[in-house]
Design goal:
Radius of gyration: 24 Å
Mean pLDDT: 86
Helix content: under 10%
Number of strands: 11
Strand order of the largest sheet: 5-11-10-7-8
Shape: rod-shaped
Structural class: mainly beta
Number of helices: 1
Length: 153
């Protein structure tokens, strides 16, 4: 360290020096995104919405942050509105979230991400997810059951 506060470091390609007070935090937002959806070990195509059948209510979502300055340092939080309203942290060594045996209904997945300096993005990625019931639990089938019940009476 020099008398003026400058730090000197030796490297393979020479000497690097800088003033530590000139180092600034990265203020660029990371843009969260769901990169893939896997059901029964098979990737599922989706665009702005994920529509799943009743047999596809166990799935894994892979998250990514569109931020290219050390993306391994990005962290994620998520919640599945309609299932849990609290934000959940994704473990720091993972980018996947899992859901098992979800009830048949509509949900909204929301994802937030940090950049490499830990600044949470103001952007929240949203993905509507619908797990459709089997035909025997559909609204039309339930109406039919009610009609059958009335005919018995």
């Amino acid at each position: 360290m020099g008398e003026d506060g400058r730090i000197y470091m030796a490297g393979i390609r020479g000497i690097v020096y800088f003033y530590p007070e000139e180092i600034r935090d990265n203020l660029t937002d990371a843009v969260p995104y769901v990169s893939s959806l896997v059901v029964n070990n098979q990737p599922i195509e989706f665009s702005n919405k994920a529509e799943l059948t009743y047999r596809q209510n166990n799935f894994k979502l892979y998250l990514t942050a569109l931020h290219y300055a050390n993306p391994q340092q990005c962290r994620f939080q998520y919640r599945l509105v309609g299932h849990n309203s609290e934000w959940q942290n994704v473990p720091s060594n993972s980018n996947a979230i899992y859901y098992a045996n979800l009830p048949y209904k509509k949900y909204l997945l929301e994802v937030k991400a940090t950049n490499n300096d830990g600044k949470w993005s103001s952007r929240v990625y949203s993905l509507p997810i619908e797990v459709r019931p089997p035909w025997w639990l559909s609204i039309l089938a339930k109406c039919f059951y009610v009609l059958l019940d009335f005919r018995k009476s």
